[in-house]
Design a protein that fits this description.
Elements (H helix, E strand, L loop, with lengths): L3 E7 L7 H12 L3 E7 L5 H6 L5 E6 L4 H7 L2 E2 L1 H6 L4 E5 L2 E5 L2 H11 L7 E5 L3 H13 L4 E5 L3 H13 L3 E4 L3 H7 L2 E4 L7 H4 L13 E4 L11 H5 L4 E3 H18 L9 H15 L1
Parallel strand pairs: 1-2, 1-3, 4-6, 7-8, 7-10, 8-9, 10-11, 11-12
Antiparallel strand pairs: 3-5, 5-6
C-alpha cells in the first residue's frame, strides 16, 4: 500500500523524466511511495493544492508554476528567497514549505563534471533558470565575471542588476559568438530548439572555437545543436539531465528528511541507479 504520494506539476508535462527519477530512487531506498505527473496550467496551482487530501506529501514544480508556488508557500529556503522561484513543495505540520533545488542541481552538475577554475561565465536566457544559474555561480566561483545574453532587454538588465545585488560581477552582452568562445563555462537556460537557428550561424566567418565548457539545460536530443559545438571541439559538455538528476536528489533529501543539505542513506547507490535508468531511456 502506498503511504505517500508525490508528483511533478506543470505544463507541458507529458515528457517529464521526474517520475522515472523519483520512482527509481524510491525503489533503491525501499520506500512504498508513488510519484506521477500532473498537468497544471498557469495560475492553476493554488486551486489544485487547496483540493488535495492528506496522502499528498510533496511536489516538484516546473514551468509555468515556479513563481506562483513562490507566492503562496508558508516558508522558503534561501535559494528560493533569492531567486523568487520555488520548484519543490513539501507538506509540513504548519503548511507548505517551498524550496529551489535548481541551484543545487546546477552546482552539482558542474562540480561532478570536473570543470576547472571558472573566471568567466556566460549565462544565456533571463528566466527562472537563468536566475538560479546566477546564484549557482555565486557558489561555484564568486569572483567570476558573468556575462548575460538574452533577447529581452528589460529582463536581461534586471538579471544583471540581481547579480550585482548578491555581490557578483555581471554585464550584459550582445554578441553570443564572441562571449561563448571566451567563456570558461557557458550555461544555456533556454528550452530545447531555441538556439538551433543561431547555432547554425556560429561557424560562419572564422568559425567557432570554444575554449571552455557548456551546460545546456536542454537534453533531448543530446547533444543539442548548440552543445555539439563544444563536443565537436573536444570540450566538456554537461547535459541538462545531470542538472535534472541532481535537483531531484535534493528534492528526495527534502521529501525523506526535510533537509536538502543532508545526503540520502546510500545516496551513491541512488545516483548510480538513476543515472542507469536515464541512460537506458535515451
Amino acid at each position: 500500500m502506498v503511504t505517500k504520494r508525490f508528483a511533478v506539476l506543470g505544463s507541458p508535462i507529458e515528457h517529464s523524466k521526474s517520475p522515472l527519477i523519483h520512482n527509481t530512487a524510491y525503489g533503491v531506498l525501499g520506500l512504498d511511495w508513488s510519484y506521477e505527473k500532473i498537468e497544471i496550467p498557469r495560475a492553476g496551482l493554488r486551486k489544485f493544492i487547496s483540493e488535495l487530501d492528506a496522502a499528498w506529501s510533496g511536489f516538484s514544480v516546473t514551468m509555468p508554476l515556479k513563481e506562483e508556488a513562490f507566492r503562496f508557500v508558508d516558508s522558503k529556503n534561501e535559494a528560493a528567497e533569492l531567486t523568487g522561484a520555488v520548484n519543490t513543495l513539501a507538506r509540513t505540520q504548519t503548511g507548505w514549505a517551498g524550496y529551489n533545488t535548481d541551484v543545487f542541481g546546477i552546482v552539482q552538475a558542474v562540480r561532478t563534471a570536473g570543470i576547472g577554475q571558472l573566471e568567466t561565465v556566460l549565462i544565456i536566457g533571463s528566466g527562472a533558470t537563468a536566475t538560479s544559474s546566477v546564484v549557482a555561480v555565486r557558489e561555484l566561483a564568486p569572483d567570476a565575471k558573468i556575462s548575460i545574453f538574452a533577447r529581452n532587454a528589460k529582463a536581461r538588465a534586471a538579471l544583471v542588476k540581481f547579480a550585482g545585488s548578491i555581490g557578483l560581477q555581471a554585464r550584459s552582452v550582445r554578441s553570443l559568438k564572441s562571449s561563448a568562445q571566451r567563456a570558461d563555462l557557458v550555461i544555456s537556460t533556454l528550452p530545447g530548439g531555441a538556439l538551433d537557428a543561431i547555432s547554425s550561424k556560429l561557424r560562419r566567418g572564422f568559425g567557432f572555437n570554444p575554449r571552455g565548457s557548456v551546460l545546456d539545460v536542454a537534453y533531448s536530443p543530446w547533444p543539442s545543436v548548440f552543445a555539439a559545438h563544444w563536443s565537436d571541439a573536444g570540450k566538456p559538455t554537461i547535459s541538462g539531465l545531470d542538472m535534472l538528476m541532481w535537483q531531484a536528489i535534493a528534492q528526495l533529501r527534502i521529501f525523506t528528511q526535510g533537509d536538502a543539505e543532508t545526503p540520502l542513506p546510500n545516496e551513491v547507490a541512488v545516483v548510480e541507479a538513476v543515472r542507469h535508468a536515464l541512460e537506458n531511456l535515451s
